[in-house]
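hiii so um. not sure if this is the right channel but i have a protein structure encoded as tokens and i wanna go backwards to a sequence. like what aa goes where. can anyone help
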């Protein structure tokens, strides 16, 4: 090999080595950037550790963020990588109160903090409607409409809460429930609102009978008395779909489906049913098998057979509710004072669902509800409450000294204290505010359009305050 060939070979080797190290550098840079994006970092003792993430969404937006005493340059809404462990987070904005919370960050996971609400420091109270002999109020799931029932619940005023200038229209229920003028009439009770189209399922009770009806708020002429229209005595009815046009009904221990639009009642879907609750077509029921053994079971229309979830003693009380959070179903089943919360399909084999909670509540609840877009499962009996947070896998338990809890949105509740003050707190008892004075207890309260808070005063007037600009 002559000298020229040697030089060419040396140059070729040098080029190959240069390109090789450049490729390694690019790969190392990509890996490093990927690890940084995923929240990995080198700790002081030389270990590779992954951060968690805090996702923040506040109302109002544009709030300054302080984490562990350090104020960030950016404002809400934002996401932030944080080391695993507890962190003190607070939000503030000129003209508003300060919101604070201690969050527990887990390595590699996202903590969603999407519900903080800061209220204006200076607010003006407005009177919207004056009532005579107010019996109850009921607020729609979207919190844009309110039913105010008067005259022994026979007459309703429908108030549009979503407008800057709320409008009011009246409904006389005698058009659907003609016997309410009789002397033995008791009261009308709202059982359930449809999530869409503003239909309301109600019961009307007399001394000797009970009737069920669907009240169409937008088109009252389409309201129907279900008891007289179908000629059946129902012991329970629940909405199966979001429009209130498909219902699941319990008649003489038989579970059926009722189609209001087609005016049809299905065959018997399941028999020997005592009570039930549903999440769409999924039904959790209490019933007996062919041998008379009592149990909690699961049934979905179209299934050949139901699934026994657990055996049940005679006399045991059962409450249940199901929600869905980020694609996972969560079902709470409470037998007497013991609650089990399942993640997954309770009808599947045991290895297909997970029992997240199995513990004693220390009271027997009379109500279980789902809030927070499926994140929260709340149980109560009188002044005793427990709220389970799917996001953090934690229970918050408390007992009120006065009044009962009324949820004002998916993450905040209110109650009226012994001095008549309207108190608002987060679901985990954080960020307590005394919002208004001289407020009547026992009526629903609403945060509507993320700006107005509506409540009933001690003088039976509908009042509101602007909480968020």
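sure thing!! here u go:
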């Amino acid at each position: 090999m002559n000298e020229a060939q040697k030089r060419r070979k040396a140059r070729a080797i040098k080029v190959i080595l240069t390109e090789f190290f450049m490729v390694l550098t690019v790969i190392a840079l990509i890996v490093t950037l990927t690890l940084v994006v995923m929240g990995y970092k080198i700790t002081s003792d030389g270990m590779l550790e992954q951060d968690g993430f805090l996702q923040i969404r506040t109302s109002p937006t544009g709030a300054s963020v302080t984490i562990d005493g350090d104020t960030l340059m950016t404002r809400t809404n934002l996401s932030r990588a944080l080391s695993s462990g507890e962190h003190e987070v607070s939000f503030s904005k000129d003209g508003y109160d300060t919101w604070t919370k201690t969050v527990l960050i887990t390595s590699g996971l996202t903590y969603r903090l999407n519900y903080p609400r800061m209220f204006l420091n200076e607010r003006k109270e407005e009177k919207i409607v004056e009532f005579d002999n107010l019996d109850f109020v009921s607020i729609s799931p979207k919190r844009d409409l309110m039913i105010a029932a008067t005259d022994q619940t026979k007459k309703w005023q429908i108030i549009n809460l979503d407008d800057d200038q709320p409008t009011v229209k009246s409904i006389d229920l005698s058009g659907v429930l003609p016997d309410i003028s009789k002397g033995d009439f008791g009261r009308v009770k709202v059982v359930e609102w449809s999530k869409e189209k503003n239909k309301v399922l109600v019961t009307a009770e007399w001394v000797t009978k009970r009737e069920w009806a669907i009240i169409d708020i937008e088109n009252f002429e389409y309201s129907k008395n279900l008891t007289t229209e179908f000629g059946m005595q129902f012991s329970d009815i629940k909405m199966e779909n979001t429009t209130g046009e498909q219902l699941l009904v319990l008649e003489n221990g038989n579970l059926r489906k009722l189609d209001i639009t087609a005016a049809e009642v299905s065959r018997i879907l399941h028999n020997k049913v005592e009570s039930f609750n549903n999440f769409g077509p999924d039904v959790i029921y209490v019933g007996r098998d062919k041998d008379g053994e009592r149990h909690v079971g699961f049934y979905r229309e179209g299934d050949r057979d139901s699934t026994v979830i657990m055996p049940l003693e005679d006399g045991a009380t059962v409450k249940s509710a199901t929600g869905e959070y980020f694609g996972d179903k969560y079902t709470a089943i409470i037998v007497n004072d013991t609650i089990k919360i399942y993640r997954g399909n309770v009808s599947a084999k045991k290895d297909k669902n997970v029992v997240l909670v199995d513990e004693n509540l220390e009271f027997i609840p009379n109500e279980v509800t789902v809030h927070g877009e499926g994140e929260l499962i709340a149980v109560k009996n009188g002044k005793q409450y427990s709220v389970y947070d799917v996001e953090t896998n934690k229970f918050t338990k408390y007992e009120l000294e006065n009044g009962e809890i009324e949820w004002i949105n998916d993450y905040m509740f209110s109650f009226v204290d012994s001095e008549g003050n309207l108190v608002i707190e987060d679901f985990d008892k954080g960020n307590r505010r005394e919002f208004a004075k001289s407020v009547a207890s026992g009526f629903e309260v609403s945060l509507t359009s993320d700006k107005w808070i509506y409540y009933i005063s001690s003088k039976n007037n509908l009042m509101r305050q602007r909480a968020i600009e």
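oh and The mean pLDDT is 90.
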